[in-house]
């Protein structure tokens, strides 16, 4: 049914949101580390 599909979609959406938030945190961490020195480049793959 469409309701089940909507629930599934909402679940996936929140997982994606959490994932994007983690990605942004890692990006900010990488930026702050690289501004302190060359150290941050090593964490670029996160």
TrEMBL record:
Domain of life of the organism encoding this protein: Eukaryota
Keyword Membrane: yes
Keywords for this protein: Membrane, Transmembrane
Keyword Transmembrane: yes
Name of the protein described by the UniProt record: Transmembrane protein 242
Species of the source: Nothobranchius korthausae
